[in-house]
Structure formats: C-alpha cells, structure tokens
Amino acid sequence: MEPRYLVEQPAVKSGGLNRRMLLAVAVGFIVLLLASVVIALTRANNPVGSLLARAVVRQDNLLNLAKDSQPSIRNGDLLKVNSDAILFLTSDSASLRGLLTASGLSGLPASLVRAETDQTTAQKLQEAKSSGLFDTAYRQVLSQKIDAQQALLRELAAKTKNPALKQAIDAAYGNLSNLQNQLAGLKL
C-alpha cells in the first residue's frame, strides 16, 4: 500500500451530526421518556391524591352552583341556607386545595375537571326557573350533589392516613351534613 492512499481518504464533514451527538440525544430522549413514565405511574398509583383532586373539583362545582343560583332563589330560608353553603364551601374548598398542593399535585388535571363538569343541571334549573319552580328544583339538585360529595369524602377518609387531611375531610363532611339538615328542614 502506498502512503498516498491513506492521505487521500475523504475528510469528515464538520457541519453534520456525529455519532456521539446522536447517542447523547438518544440517551436524553430515553431518560426523559422514563421520567415521564415514572411520574405517570406515581400519580396513577396515588389513589388518595386522585380522590382528593376529585373532591376539590366537586367542592368547587358545588361552590359555583351555589354562587350562580343565589340571584334566582326566592325563598328567604333557602336563601339563608345557600348563603351558609357559599361560606362553608369556600372555606372547605380552600382547605382541600391546600392539602392537594401539599400532597404534591400541582394542579387539577383538565381531564378530571371535564369529567366532573355537569352538563345538565344548568338547563334543568333554567327550565325550573321559567316554570316558577326554581327553589324546589335547586334544593333537590343541591341535596343530590351534597350526597355525592359526602360519599366521595367518606371514601377518601377511609383511604388516607394523613391526619391533616382527615381533619379537613371531617370539617367538610360536617359542614355538608349541616347543609343537608338545613335543606331537609325547609318547607318550600
């Protein structure tokens, strides 16, 4: 072999990706993919966190229902119960949200918010308002939603070992029970 054959080999182009760069990008992608899977599995295996997130969404939905319904209520006693509901739900929602953040969840998943959004209540209440039966319909809807929230809070209380969360659940459950008793005592 003549030495000039070695010298005449084509030079490597300097502008392209070399194997080390491709390997680094591939390893980075794999690490990112594995981290995403670990985070997803951690969240999926956290039933208390997902139940707490559902409880927060439902509590917020109850609060919005009470606030939105306030101007339509005609019965003075129901108006007082609704005002109490707004106070209790605001306080309890803040407590549950604080614990949600403390449990490591940075926010509420959009899919959960969509899944818990009620599409029929507003129309039902609007129809009841048009027919002059808003107060009766609202009391029924609020009572049903409180029952559903209480069932979720019982489930959450049974699964958590966190004393602060248990205390917040007990307070929210007690407030909802108080509201249920007030609603049951109304004569509409």
What does this molecule look like?
The chain is mostly helical and 188 residues long. It folds into two domains: 14-45; 47-184, Ferritin, core subunit, four-helix bundle (Ferritin, Up-down Bundle), CATH 1.20.1260. The chain contains eight helices and no strands. The chain has helices at residues 3-7, 19-44, 47-69, 76-102, 110-116, 121-130, 134-159, 163-184. Helix 3 (47-69) runs antiparallel to helix 7, helix 4 (76-102) runs antiparallel to helix 8 (163-184) and helix 7 packs antiparallel against helix 8 (163-184). The longest helix is centred in the middle third of the chain and has 27 residues, at 76-102. Keywords: Membrane, Transmembrane, Transmembrane helix. The chain crosses the membrane at residues 21-41.
Key phrases:
188 residues, mainly alpha, Ferritin, 2 domains, 0% strand
Q: Supply the helix-strand structural class.
A: mainly alpha
Cα-atom Rg, whole angstroms? 28 Å
CATH H level of the largest domain: which superfamily? Ferritin, core subunit, four-helix bundle
Unreliable parts: 40-44
* Gross CATH architecture of the largest domain: Up-down Bundle
Number of domains: 2
Mean pLDDT: 84
Transmembrane segments: 21-41
Keywords: Membrane, Transmembrane, Transmembrane helix
